[in-house]
Fold this protein.
Amino acid sequence: MKWGKVSVSVKKEEAEVVASLFDDIDAGGVEINDPTLTAEDCEIVEWAVPFEPEKPGKDALVTITSYLAVDDSLKERVSRLGELLEAYSERTGARYGKEDVRLDIVDDADWVDNWKQYFHTTRVGACTVIQPAWESYEPKEGDIVIAIDPSAAFGTGTHPTTALCIRALERLVIPGMRVFDVGTGSGILAILAAKLGAGEVVAMDYDPAAAQAAEENVARNGVEHIVRTGQSDLLQAYSGKADLIIANIIADIVIRLFDMAGSHLAEGGRFLASGIIDERAEDVKQAGRARGFRLLQEYQENGWTSLLFAREGE
């Protein structure tokens, strides 16, 4: 299968807002490649994207990339992204236009081979090990190994937003609890919750390709009796209440989720929000407080923030 690799390069402080524009063309997820990371950063997290040893200047651009199916709608979606980028520039004074949206056609096999070259078995949390499906690994005592194939849905567990969630889940998941994973991507967090002892996990994504990848990874890890996958626009297709809601998305989508999360949280439940660039963390906190949520914990790493909330009074 062929994919349209759609990329835009922007300043780091603009990356999250521009990444949110991809939602308006129904992109299932984005990869954010930040070349400003130092060698020390890369010792903390082993990146799936190759690190260039020459340290760039502080004004180096961050590249946002998504993969769209090559079909009759591709040209229109790319054009729409260019229009959104121009509208963003008009609002903010930035200097981006349609010409800054790059489109390359790649084969599915090329995409997978790229991951195989740079994505290797990585210990992310205290006990969580992410293992590519094409590598072997001998678990150590106490290891929780998650074998995945990212396919065309992003999520390798090595990006700080996912790594922060993994470390939080190692502390938050209680045996038997019910977990909702919103925007599950490749399903890593849902699989981890199941392996940590959750009694039921519902993991859905807006993008059908991501939902399919999550389903395959769930089966690959033998937790399909615990994890139910599917397609959903945020929490719309979820029913009932969860003890823990996970949303590793972006700040603007997390803010929208507050209006729905309250009615889907069981008494004493927690809402773990990630994918938030540091500069937007305060916006998310304020939105949470305005909708009756109390901040319990804040986690930060390499310019990204994860926030743990409870409803007021709990």
